[in-house]
Amino acid sequence: MTASGTVRRKPWEVEDGLWEWIEPLLPVVERRYRYPGRKRLDQRKVMCGILFVLYTGIRWEFLPQELGFGSGMTCWRRLRDWNVGVTEPRIRTGEGPSLPGDGGHWL
Questions:
Q1: Can you give the residue ranges of every domain in the chain?
Q2: Which residue has the higher pLDDT, 7 or 103?
């Protein structure tokens, strides 16, 4: 808590407004019908795990399971999948969302 009585958000926690902007950009992976396997971890939790690793500088394999972000390997794989599935196609085509105040340019 800060002196004003508000709770400080940790740097790796994604705020609701930012998440509303990020979530539609992430690819949706449908579960298989016949052999669905283990249910995927929530995208927002994985994003927080990725940000935790990047903020603290720890190695992926040392991401604490107790934080609820999944394993470091899960976060690393999802980051890899998002990078290939989201970033590369939009950079190649020059399309993507605009941020408020950026003049409508994504890059």
A1: 41-94
A2: 7
